[in-house]
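Human:
Focus on the backbone:
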Amino acid sequence: MLSRQGYTNREIAQQMGIAEKTVEQHISKALRLVRDWLPNYLLMVFILSLIH
C-alpha cells in the first residue's frame, strides 16, 4: 500500500525497519500473485455477468 501511495522502497524499508531488498521482494511477490489471480477473477466476473 505504501508503494502505491508514492513512497519509495527506501522510505518503506526505513519506516518498517526492514531491508530495502525485502521490500522489493514483497512487492514483486504481491504483483506476481495479482497477475496470476486477475485472469481467473475477470473470467468469473464475465460469467456472472452472463447469468444476471
In short: The mean pLDDT is 94.
